[in-house]
Amino acid sequence: MGFKFDISARDGRARTGVIATPRGEIRTPAFMPVGTAATVKAMMPESVRETGADILLGNTYHLMLRPTAERIANLGGLHKFMNWDRPILTDSGGFQVMSLASLRNMTEEGVRFASHIDGARHMLTPERSMEIQRLLGSDIVMSFDECTPWPADEKTARASMELSMRWARRSRDAFGDIPGHALFGIQQGSVYPDQRAESAEKLRAIGFDGYAIGGLAVGEGQELMFQVLDYAPDQLPEDKPRYLMGVGKPDDIVGAVQRGVDMFDCVLPSRSGRTGQGWTARGPVNLRNARHRDDPRPLEAGCTCPACRNYSRAYLHHVIKSDEIIGSMLLTWHNLTYYQRLMQGLRDAISLGKLDQFVARFHADRAQGDIDPL
Amino acid sequence: MGFKFDISARDGRARTGVIATPRGEIRTPAFMPVGTAATVKAMMPESVRETGADILLGNTYHLMLRPTAERIANLGGLHKFMNWDRPILTDSGGFQVMSLASLRNMTEEGVRFASHIDGARHMLTPERSMEIQRLLGSDIVMSFDECTPWPADEKTARASMELSMRWARRSRDAFGDIPGHALFGIQQGSVYPDQRAESAEKLRAIGFDGYAIGGLAVGEGQELMFQVLDYAPDQLPEDKPRYLMGVGKPDDIVGAVQRGVDMFDCVLPSRSGRTGQGWTARGPVNLRNARHRDDPRPLEAGCTCPACRNYSRAYLHHVIKSDEIIGSMLLTWHNLTYYQRLMQGLRDAISLGKLDQFVARFHADRAQGDIDPL
């Protein structure tokens, strides 16, 4: 049960270290690319690994509907199915049920809903979520919770948090203890410090292998999110990984790492890659813009990804405008490479005790904006 | 001017050899994957090379409209633009103008048309086609012709063939003589042996570095196509490459190689890959079919492509049904690998003087049909 988490260095509230799992090490702070339906869209898994990713995220909601958890289990588990032998974290399915499914009915027991694919009726409960994640063979299983909607008044936030804590207990009981697999609890409490503290206390009492900070990145904005992160991570156990779910943009990640967060996931680098947005040290670049159409320069000088090594901005512009699949392939590859380079930079800076300088440089580079047009 | 074409072995009317170009050797019989808009759809060019492709085809019509030949020339040519440093053959644009553009008006001078992308008016003539292909940096340039529509009565076919021969002359004159680049003529004449002979004679008189057999694979069916191939290749110079444009299915290629054809191109393996069809020695397999959804076996046992090495039919079925980009990537990769394996098999068989046995085995394997369901 659980994994060894070695924190090798601290700088302010930030930490860097390694989570050791039977399927390989996860260097923290870690960014997890999202492989929703058993694929990181437009990427071969070996390419995802080449970008530096130690762990992927899979979505329970999508996989339970198609191809189903039982089918994946019969085929040898999610790792074998999607040809990724390193760690996989799966979410609980709760968040996506609330954002994608229809005819939802939430009760104490769980959530009934209709599939967005074929309308079939399903039910997710803490017990069913644990069963599905176990069938998938997930290395890091997330407890089933309600992601408290934003905005929520104190009373609504409390009711939601308390329900999630009861579901956390049921998740823990249903998960039991699986050697080599970890269960993470999820803190709720919206933007209310006392509720966050109470949620953290309840999770500690149950006991998890890691702790997520839930209910953020749901529309509250970076300023409010950072206000919560000014205290929420420190409410969680110091010796366990802290995971900020669904975050985020590069500057969100940098600010959260400064505040003591160890793990992140977000669809942003892959999704925006498919729409022609490239992320660089100097900020986002819209390759659809006509200013790139004659530009022989790479998207980001010095980047080691194939998009930057082998192609011009003019080519990227052309294939994106032409809706060619290679446009999605190349920009996703670049964006995931950029994100992993950012994480490596953060880890190195923390190790050297130079996080402040790194962050100052990060913001200075972005302030420059993209390279000048030709 | 032109390339050295060494025929190393013959078996019946079939030949195997090597076309030596400054950008690398082309082993014949050769299959050229189609990279319409400066990309073989859903493939990285290094992966296309891994399948065994020695040469790609690019489409003049698409590239002249977007990003334009002038832009590609300014960026250093098509090879650099699309990161493919081996030979590229470009078509003349004529065929696609007739199948894709609107408001077409064909005269002795050439074809006026409106772009299918933005409606802009353009004109393609033999001279403009040569200029565009030269700007692209094409290694093998095709002369500008009219692909005689099917069916065509003798009179219509003759008028079309004679126009194409006048355009062949103008293409030759406009192309001139570019060291390290070759110009191919295109035989027309529909299904009329005397017209095919006359067309071949006119092309020989002009003198080309290679000869294509045009006006086939346009709806006439395999039986009629093979009837033409029973005599047409032998009307062309023995010591130059013979290229059957737009062909085809594996059994089309096998039959054409038996009849003396050296080069092929077709969108089939890439296009059908994107719709879930896998080509194997035992025939085409529709991966969308539900019979694959629990099948842990590879698409084709023994195949060296990533789709077969690392994934089950169940996974391929899942990602295709889910419209995931990796489905297009994996099936295109497999199909191009299968096509190149077929070409290698044909080359080896001709070298060994065992083409008949190879073809018998080819048909026997296909007659078996796909592997039994689980």
Automatic annotation (TrEMBL), chains A, B:
<dbReference type="InterPro" id="IPR004803">
    <property type="entry name" value="TGT"/>
</dbReference>
<keyword id="KW-0671">Queuosine biosynthesis</keyword>
<feature type="binding site">
    <location>
        <position position="215"/>
    </location>
    <ligand>
        <name>substrate</name>
    </ligand>
</feature>
<feature type="binding site">
    <location>
        <position position="334"/>
    </location>
    <ligand>
        <name>Zn(2+)</name>
    </ligand>
</feature>
<feature type="binding site">
    <location>
        <position position="188"/>
    </location>
    <ligand>
        <name>substrate</name>
    </ligand>
</feature>
<comment type="pathway">
    <text>tRNA modification; tRNA-queuosine biosynthesis.</text>
</comment>
<feature type="binding site">
    <location>
        <position position="303"/>
    </location>
    <ligand>
        <name>Zn(2+)</name>
    </ligand>
</feature>
<protein>
    <recommendedName>
        <fullName>Queuine tRNA-ribosyltransferase</fullName>
        <ecNumber>2.4.2.29</ecNumber>
    </recommendedName>
</protein>
<dbReference type="InterPro" id="IPR036511">
    <property type="entry name" value="TGT-like_sf"/>
</dbReference>
<dbReference type="GO" id="GO:0046872">
    <property type="term" value="F:metal ion binding"/>
</dbReference>
<feature type="domain" description="tRNA-guanine(15) transglycosylase-like">
    <location>
        <begin position="13"/>
        <end position="366"/>
    </location>
</feature>
<dbReference type="Pfam" id="PF01702">
    <property type="entry name" value="TGT"/>
</dbReference>
<feature type="active site" description="Proton acceptor">
    <location>
        <position position="91"/>
    </location>
</feature>
<keyword id="KW-0479">Metal-binding</keyword>
<feature type="active site" description="Nucleophile">
    <location>
        <position position="265"/>
    </location>
</feature>
<feature type="binding site">
    <location>
        <position position="305"/>
    </location>
    <ligand>
        <name>Zn(2+)</name>
    </ligand>
</feature>
<dbReference type="GO" id="GO:0008616">
    <property type="term" value="P:tRNA queuosine(34) biosynthetic process"/>
</dbReference>
<dbReference type="InterPro" id="IPR002616">
    <property type="entry name" value="tRNA_ribo_trans-like"/>
</dbReference>
<comment type="function">
    <text>Catalyzes the base-exchange of a guanine (G) residue with the queuine precursor 7-aminomethyl-7-deazaguanine (PreQ1) at position 34 (anticodon wobble position) in tRNAs with GU(N) anticodons (tRNA-Asp, -Asn, -His and -Tyr). Catalysis occurs through a double-displacement mechanism. The nucleophile active site attacks the C1' of nucleotide 34 to detach the guanine base from the RNA, forming a covalent enzyme-RNA intermediate. The proton acceptor active site deprotonates the incoming PreQ1, allowing a nucleophilic attack on the C1' of the ribose to form the product.</text>
</comment>
<keyword id="KW-0328">Glycosyltransferase</keyword>
<dbReference type="GO" id="GO:0008479">
    <property type="term" value="F:tRNA-guanosine(34) queuine transglycosylase activity"/>
</dbReference>
<feature type="binding site">
    <location>
        <begin position="91"/>
        <end position="95"/>
    </location>
    <ligand>
        <name>substrate</name>
    </ligand>
</feature>
<dbReference type="InterPro" id="IPR050076">
    <property type="entry name" value="ArchSynthase1/Queuine_TRR"/>
</dbReference>
<feature type="binding site">
    <location>
        <position position="145"/>
    </location>
    <ligand>
        <name>substrate</name>
    </ligand>
</feature>
<keyword id="KW-0808">Transferase</keyword>
<comment type="subunit">
    <text>Homodimer. Within each dimer, one monomer is responsible for RNA recognition and catalysis, while the other monomer binds to the replacement base PreQ1.</text>
</comment>
<feature type="binding site">
    <location>
        <position position="308"/>
    </location>
    <ligand>
        <name>Zn(2+)</name>
    </ligand>
</feature>
<keyword id="KW-0862">Zinc</keyword>
<feature type="region of interest" description="RNA binding">
    <location>
        <begin position="246"/>
        <end position="252"/>
    </location>
</feature>
<dbReference type="GO" id="GO:0005829">
    <property type="term" value="C:cytosol"/>
</dbReference>
<comment type="similarity">
    <text>Belongs to the queuine tRNA-ribosyltransferase family.</text>
</comment>
<keyword id="KW-0819">tRNA processing</keyword>
